[in-house]
Amino acid sequence: MEEKIAVELKNISFGYSQDITNIDDISFKVKRGEYLTLIGHNGSGKSTIARLITGLLLQRSGDINILGETMTDDNVLRLRKNIGIIFQNPDNQFIGSSVRDDIAFGLENDCVAEDRMEAIVDEYSQKVGMKNFLDKEPTNLSGGQKQRVAIAGALARHPQILIMDESTSMLDPKGKRGILDLIHRIKKEDENLTIISITHDIQEAYDSDHVIVIASGKKILDGTPDEVFNNSQRMIDLKLDIPFFKKLNIELENKGLAKYKSNSLESLVNKLCR
Q1: How many domains are there within the chain?
Q2: pTM
Q3: Containing H/E element for 9?
C-alpha cells in the first residue's frame, strides 16, 4: 500500500535577506497521522520551517507538498485551511472578547452556519476542559488555560495537520504537562491527525513518532526517537539534551555497569532496585 504523506519538503532553501541562508536544502516527509517533533537551538530554523509549511513565507527553492499537492500562489489559501497552528504566546492568537468568540472566530471565517458553530464550540471547549469558561474574557485566564483555548480554536476547524510552535515553552512544568497530555489524548481520539511540534522538550520529542534535529538551518538527524537519541555523542556535540535515562545509561556504561542499561527510565529503575 502506498504510504500517505501529509507534508513533504523537497530541497527547501530560504533566507530572510538576499545574502543569508536560514534554511539550507532541507528535505523530509511527515506521514499522515504521525507526531513529528522538530528540535534544535533558538535560531536554528525550526519556526521558519513552520512558516514555510503554512505558506506564510515563500521558499527560495524547492517544493512543499501538503496532502499530496504542491503548494503554489494559486492554492496556498486553500491548502492552509487544512492546517491549524498554535503559537508560543497564546495572547498573540486571541481575537474575541470571550472564550466562546475566540473559538468561533476561525469557524466564522470558514462561513460555518451559526447553529452548527454553537455545537462545534461546545464540543471543542468540552474536549479541552474549558466549557465552563466560555463567557470569560481570555485576558483573565492562566497561561495553560489560554493554550487550551488556542488548541480548541485550532481543532474546531478540523485541520488535518496541527503545528505547535513551541506552544508549551511559556508554561510552568505542571501547565506544560497538562497541555502535552491533552495533545496526546486528542491524538488518540483522531489517529489521522498529523502533528508537527517545534519544541525544546526532550521528553516530548522522545514520546513522539518521528524526530528531526535542525542546526544552523540544516537537517542533522532524522529518524525515530531511539534512532536520533542513540546518537548521544552527536547530540552532546550539538549542545542538545538527551532523555534522562539515556544519560544514566552512559554513566552506567562508563562505570562498567552496562548490564543495567535499559530502554526506559521505569525499566532502568526496576533493574537497579532488584
Answers
A1: 2
A2: 0.88
A3: strand 5-14
Residue 24 in grid coordinates = 539550507
Say if CB 84 and CB 164 are below 8 A apart.
no
State residue 256's pLDDT score: 73
CATH of the domain at 220: 3.40.50.300
109-153 pLDDT, tens digit each: 888 888 899 999 999 999 899 999 999 998 889 888 988 998 999
Q: What is the spatial distance between Cα 192 and Cα 182, in angstroms, rounded to a whole number?
A: 16
Residues 184 and 252 in one domain: no
Tell me the percentage of the chain whose pLDDT exceeds 70.
94
Same domain, 49 and 165: yes
Report which DSSP code applies to 197: E
Task: Show the domain range for 259.
Answer: 243-274
Amino acid letter, residue 211: V
DSSP SS3 for 52: helix
Query: Do 25 and 89 sit in the same domain of this protein?
Result: yes
